[in-house]
């Protein structure tokens, strides 16, 4: 499934040979277009029954791909109606999912992509529609693309050819890119099946020009291979059920055959009784003729009897031949009917297995898309956490750097203050010690000089 989604992202560009797929039991049509152009109504017109829901407003009714089938002009026709999410240029997961669903339903490939446009309304998206189809389904898809105009009644007395001729260059360019293939529908008159017959004839001509096969590419073939494998598996699982249905049909056929044999036996007995009754009458007539004495009359009676006997014999031969032919015809009809019913059982089983395979494939797709979404969310969360972690690491580094710088600055300031304080204390202590020492020495010197002066003064006065 992951490989399929990855292949879709590569735009499904690989083209397969025209004879790569030979399964032409069903005529497959894919409807593409914007909301409100009449895709669902066109699907109903093609199939001749109301199977696709439609509204008159421009609100989308088809939100997912829808597949419906019917017998149309003695052929099996399948129509896949798509949501308008197939038209935008930038696909997302939901669009990819619906593309794969469309491919699943149309596998091994569609015979035609019908680009549905409405008369009188032409949007910018529709101007680029052919390129979008190529981007979604591959470059060669435009060779299998045809424009289908709806609301043909709005043309009134104008022909579709004149409408295209009088339209702007953008519409003419789309028609040209589609190989000048176009058709017009009046969905308000679905009873007019000639418009459907004409459309199918145009599609047949287009397919014949393209080599007589449906469109396919690598992606369609991958999906078809997966579906066939699942279909075979489902058929094996339902083998007992299918065999039981066949056995019931065989028993029913034998009962019908026995009834037919009894009916034909009654018819044979009736013919036999009629023959015996006539022979008895002829014998009685012969006895009467023998008793007749008139030779001429006897001869005439014998002649008439012989003619009657011959006529009856011829009549009985014809009746017996008719009886045998009717018996063979009835037996052949019974056998053909039995084979048809048996083929119906086979086809019904295959169609049922195919639908189941498609449903299982789409369910796997839903799971794969959900898983891809979850993985995407996980990856987004991891990236977010990684970015947040880097930011946190950078913040921590910045914080550590700032802390270190602040610590260094604070340490330097504290060291400076402590150094200054210590220096001041040391300076004060040394100053005090020096002051005290100087004071003491000066005091001693002063005391000595004073003592000497006093002693000299006293000595002189005594002398």
TrEMBL record:
Signal peptide residues are none
Q: Show the InterPro entries listed in the entry.
A: G_AIG1, GIMA/IAN/Toc, P-loop_NTPase
Q: Does the keyword Nucleotide-binding apply?
A: yes
Annotated AIG1-type G domain residues: 24-224
Xref: Pfam families: AIG1
Q: Where is this region: Disordered?
A: 264-303, 330-463
A molecular function (GO) term:
GTP binding
Which keywords does this Swiss-Prot/TrEMBL entry list?
A: GTP-binding, Nucleotide-binding
Q: Where is the composition biased (Basic and acidic residues)?
A: 330-363, 371-387, 394-424
The text of the family note is: Belongs to the TRAFAC class TrmE-Era-EngA-EngB-Septin-like GTPase superfamily. AIG1/Toc34/Toc159-like paraseptin GTPase family. IAN subfamily.
User: What name is this protein filed under?
Assistant: GTPase IMAP family member 4-like
- Native organism is Astyanax mexicanus
